[in-house]
Amino acid sequence: MSTPTYTHDQIEQAITDGFDMAADHAGIPTQNPDFTATLTTFWAYLAITDTTAHTRDQVSKTLNRATDDAAAPGCADDIDNFAVNAALTLLETPDATFEDIATECYDETPDVIAGWLRAAT
């Protein structure tokens, strides 16, 4: 069985959808400095100039490295971690909901996760 790969467009869409989802459910605008700092670093690390497809593992390593490097003061917060988990989940399941990510990635209710996101700002 071959390993699935994802294009730059699929990766970009998953990241954008993940941030929009987090912002919506936490009641925080996507212009929040926490979102923009991590998102800017994601885009910088994912600057892909070719159309080569990438595995989930490659995307995961890149997003986690970007998150660690963008984290201030040196520790990724819940928004950063949710963004990575949401993007990776949405790559595999583009129609996943906030509720799906909350239960599958955190084994928590969506309200608990939304509270963590609000508290991280």
Structure keywords:
single chain, 121 residues, mainly alpha, two-stranded antiparallel sheet
* Distance separating the two termini: 42 Å
Mean pLDDT: 85
Q: In oligomeric terms, what are we looking at? A: single chain
Q: What overall form do the CA principal axes indicate?
A: globular
Q: In angstroms, what is the radius of gyration?
A: 14 Å
- Range of helix content: 55-70%
Extract low-pLDDT stretches: none
Strand content: under 5%
Helix-and-strand structural type = mainly alpha
How is the topology of this model organized?
Blueprint: E1 5-6, H1 8-26, H2 33-45, E2 54-55, H3 56-70, H4 78-92, H5 98-106, H6 110-119
Antiparallel strand pairs: 1-2
Task: Give a nutshell description of this structure.
The protein is mainly alpha-helical and 121 residues long.
Structure description:
With 121 residues, this protein is mainly α. It is built from six helices and two strands, in the order βααβαααα. The chain has helices at 8-26, 33-45, 56-70, 78-92, 98-106, 110-119, and strands at residues 5-6, 54-55. It has a two-stranded antiparallel ribbon. Helix 2 crosses helix 3 (56-70).
